[in-house]
Design goal:
Distance between the termini: 31 Å
Helix content: 25-40%
Number of strands: 11
Order of helices and strands: EHHHEEEEEHHHEEEEE
Number of helices: 6
Length: about 250
């Protein structure tokens, strides 16, 4: 089966006005309009990079001419290839893909024959509150077990790193199954690998419990792009029925 992992450092991309206008002509009108809604130029640039990564992947790995690519979103926001309807398949396996952008990077993960979701998080200090207050506000997003791991990580920065690591894992799963904000994140609990997460290495030992039952049909990849950017990729067997989700 095919597997693709790409990362693009948006912070090093400084497009001129003509470059940006060219980029907007490379995406669909609704994508351009959505990107234009971002308040900050940095976020708009990252979103554009994500959309261009998607199109580059479809063009290069699925052998579909750029002009024929039509990307749409499911009712819950997951991107998919809407046209051409007869997309090329490698080894008879359909591609699934997902993108994420946060901090200084946009990332893409794609896989054949399985559900895929990706999320990237940058470890940053809360802007307008203390770490303890930030954690209090986010209490309902994690289980008691997860909070025990996060708050025992060491310094405040280490606790934040653990927080964002758990958050990326949860988001990668939510994005893989294509659900939205209505999903109760406390239904999902992650048990991290006992091995340390270090640069240049991909961990695949982290386990997920859904409704207190360990899920054997899901694999999670974790890696660091640099000391502050954590990536999680969720991979689930496409022919396994998903969990019962709220509509």
């Amino acid at each position: 089966m095919g597997s693709v992992r790409w990362a693009f450092r948006c912070g090093s991309w400084t497009p001129s006005r003509s470059d940006w206008l060219f980029a907007t002509r490379c995406v669909q009108t609704e994508e351009k309009d959505r990107i234009g809604q971002y308040m900050f130029a940095k976020d708009a640039k990252s979103a554009m990079a994500g959309r261009l990564l998607l199109r580059k992947f479809v063009c290069e790995r699925m052998a579909i001419p750029w002009s024929e690519i039509r990307l749409e979103r499911s009712p819950r926001g997951k991107p998919y290839l809407a046209a051409p309807l007869k997309a090329s398949l490698d080894n008879g396996q359909a591609w699934n893909f997902n993108v994420s952008h946060q901090g200084d990077y946009a990332v893409l993960a794609a896989e054949q024959g399985v559900q895929v979701g990706v999320d990237i998080m940058k470890t940053t200090m809360p802007g307008s509150s203390s770490v303890s207050e930030f954690f209090r506000i986010m209490t309902r997003q994690f289980t008691a077990y997860e909070w025990s791991i996060i708050q025992s990580a060491g310094s405040e920065h280490q606790q934040l790193a653990a927080f964002y690591r758990h958050w990326a894992l949860k988001e990668s799963f939510i994005k893989a199954i294509g659900t939205g904000l209505g999903f109760n994140l406390q239904r999902v609990e992650f048990h991290l690998s006992t091995e340390p997460l270090t640069l240049g290495r991909v961990l695949r030992q982290t386990k997920m419990h859904l409704d207190e039952e360990e899920e054997e049909n899901w694999l999670f990849e974790e890696s660091l792009l640099d000391a502050d950017h954590h990536i999680a990729v969720a991979l689930g067997l496409a022919d396994i029925p998903g969990p019962s989700l709220p509509s």
